[in-house]
Structures are given as structure tokens and as C-alpha cells.
Write a structure and sequence with these properties.
This protein has 97 residues and is an all-alpha fold. The protein has a domain at 30-96. It is 62% helix and 0% strand. It has helices at residues 16-46, 61-65, 73-96.
């Protein structure tokens, strides 16, 4: 554990640039949350052998189908957007095969 590790970011103000930055930040947080949900499930089922070389390998149709948006008011909409994006990418990947 890195006890002295820190996370820093610039404070945001109420202007369009910062609103856009915050929007993209929440989308990244949502994507990270969805990845953790899938990855934790895979690790519980299969152990460390389930660790992918690339995180996007976990987006199989079975894994994505089980995902649901969180029900809190802030994350719900961002989770829905990311779920739609992931499902669309997943369909495109399987059509190409």
C-alpha cells in the first residue's frame, strides 16, 4: 500500500469548458465502474487466470448483458450512456468476426 500516494486534480468552475471536463470525467468513472463489476465477477469465478491482457477483452456479450446502471441520480445516466456505448461496441466486434 502506498500510504503517501495522492490524487490531485484542478478545481472546476461553472463554465462550459469545465462542465465538459466534468462530463467526460463522470463518463470515465462510469466506464471504470462497469469494468470493475465485470472483472471482480470473473476473478471470483476463475481466479487470477481471468485477468485479461487488455481490459476491453472482458466485454463479452454474456458479461455485458449482466450489467445494470447504478440507481443513484448522478451515476445512473452516465452508466446508461456507457452501457449503451459498450453494448454497441460489443455488437460491432462480434459482427466483424
Amino acid at each position: 500500500v502506498a500510504e503517501e500516494a495522492t490524487f490531485e486534480y484542478d478545481s472546476l468552475t461553472l463554465n462550459w469548458r469545465d462542465i465538459k471536463t466534468y462530463h467526460h470525467r463522470l463518463l470515465r468513472y462510469s466506464e471504470r465502474h462497469l469494468q470493475k463489476v465485470i472483472l471482480y465477477r470473473l476473478l471470483k469465478q476463475n481466479g487470477v487466470t481471468a485477468m485479461p491482457d487488455n481490459i476491453y477483452e472482458i466485454y463479452s456479450s454474456d458479461n455485458v448483458r449482466q450489467l445494470r446502471p447504478r440507481l443513484d441520480p448522478v451515476n445512473f445516466w452516465y452508466d446508461r450512456v456507457m452501457l449503451k456505448r459498450v453494448r454497441r461496441q460489443n455488437l460491432g466486434a462480434f459482427r466483424r468476426v
